[in-house]
Amino acid sequence: MTSLASAPMGSAVERLRAGVEELSQRDQRVARFCIDHAEEVPFLSAGELAGRLGISGAAITRFSQRVGYDGYPHFQKTVRHDLRATLGLKQPGPQNAVVADFWASERANLENLAALPEQQLLLFAQAIAQARRVWIVGARSSYGLALMAEALLSSFRPRVEAHSADLLLSRPEQFLELTAEDAVLVYTLRRYSRATTQVVTALHERGVTVLLLTDQGASPLGKLARHCLRLPTQGSEAAASVAPFVSVTSLMIVLVARAWKGDHFKQTEALKAEFGVYEY
Questions:
Q1: Boundaries of each SIS domain copy (predicted)?
Q2: Whether pLDDT at 84 is above 90
Q3: Residue 208 has what DSSP assignment?
């Protein structure tokens, strides 16, 4: 057992970082992967992590024990707990500060969106516009964002569908509908959904273009995305802000509508008028 196992308490990654030089060459490889990809550890079984590193699952178990844990599940649980503690969410403060703090956080998040490179935004929208079909995927609260995006985007281009990642996992045969000509627009925020990671990984393996809208954490899907927009989500209370996601989604709608030159929009509006969808 290394002295790292009895090191002062801190996060699992902090302890690895402090003691990595004490480890054997093989254990250093495991430790450095866990340091650099901490956000992925909660989603990887011992076998999957071993496969990424080209070693055995037993080696992962022994590594976990040598650095002070009962085994890999204990190490994984600790990393997951540490990540939850870094979400940046705060407990409610005095009632008279809540409203002012909320608007201050929202203003800061929206102002920070201006730092996103314009070319990156244009390429993201271009991929949405050019795909044969677009699936929009989210889980839990992110599924609400996916539904909003579907409602807006479907007026300006055809073949747009929102899907719950949890429900897709129960019907994986639906993955056969998508090909390399298609794109999946993914909404995911910390704590990243395991279902979303599994669904998008499967679609990526089918050649589907992955377009990722996420926060400024290290989403495990970042490495799969053709285009990725990392948005500021600092919350003033016990929830991350979704305003940047709504704003960027609205921008994507504008850019896609321009790319489609309004033809699909005219057709959808004519149908809505025919069926009396709106009061005026």
A1: 124-265
A2: no
A3: P
pLDDT (tens digit per residue) in 104-152:
888 888 898 988 999 999 999 999 999 999 999 999 989 999 999 999 9
3-state class (DSSP) for residue 157: coil
Tokens of 274: 């025919």
111 vs 95: CA distance, rounded Å? 25
**Nearest-angstrom CA–CA distance, 229 and 107:** 19
Q: Is the pLDDT of residue 270 over 90?
A: no
d(CA 157, CA 257): 7
What is the length of the chain? Answer: 280
Instruction: Indicate if the pLDDT at residue 3 is higher than 60.
Output: no
Give the residue among 248, 253, 240, 251 at the shortest CA–CA distance from 106. Answer: 240
Locate 98 and state its tokens: 């809540």
Contact of 238 with 92, CB cutoff 8 Å: yes
Domains, the chain, ranges and CATH? 3-84 (1.10.10.10), 100-274 (3.40.50.10490)
Percent with pLDDT over 90 in the chain: 57
Predicted TM-score (pTM) of the model is: 0.72
Q: In angstroms, rounded to a whole number, what is the distance separating the alpha carbons of residues 218 and 213?
A: 12
Closest CA to 40 of 262, 227, 190, 254: 190
- Per the CB < 8 A criterion, the answer to whether 20 and 3 are in contact is no
